[in-house]
Amino acid sequence: MSTSPQPNEQPTGLPAALPAALPAALPALPALPHDSIAELSHDFRLANSRLTRRLRQQRADDELTAGQFSALCSVYSSGPLTLSELSEHERVTPPSMNRTVNALVAAQLVKRENAADDGRKVILTASEAGGALVQETRERRDAWIAQRVMKLSPEQQQVLAEATLIMKELAEN
């Protein structure tokens, strides 16, 4: 008994390995309106960019730039961090990150402290206000997307759950 997908079960435009990753409970998917992987990639990128922009609008503070908020989230989630560690994490140069951190310190969202073992080293931590801002933004974003997911059919929610796993895999590679 073969477990490989039958030719008529594979949606056109998808890599051969994808149908095997989908659970057997999913109904056969219709053919995608994409003629090529390049077209699918383009449409996926556009849809992902639009969704990201909409989610960014759900920030609890619209005074921060996207880069500042991203750095704050990194300090909150991964901190305490040095400026070099934060720069690496955010993939920006240390001078650029220093300007970002200066703005966050001025807004009292991040605290700078000298390291106990080396007075020249600066350690960054999120302030109480910074942590609260990150939490409130996460809650707003989760609520915004949850409202939209609840409007999907159970089948669409299942496809979204599978697509989320695939997106995580794409992001890790």
From TrEMBL:
Top-level lineage group: Bacteria
InterPro entries in the cross-refs: HTH-type_Bedaq_tolerance, HTH_MarR-typ, WH-like_DNA-bd_sf, WH_DNA-bd_sf
SMART domains: HTH_MARR
Residue ranges of every copy of the HTH marR-type domain listed in the record: 37-173
PANTHER family: CONSERVED PROTEIN, HTH-TYPE TRANSCRIPTIONAL REGULATOR RV0880
Designated name of the protein: HTH marR-type domain-containing protein
Organism: Leifsonia kafniensis
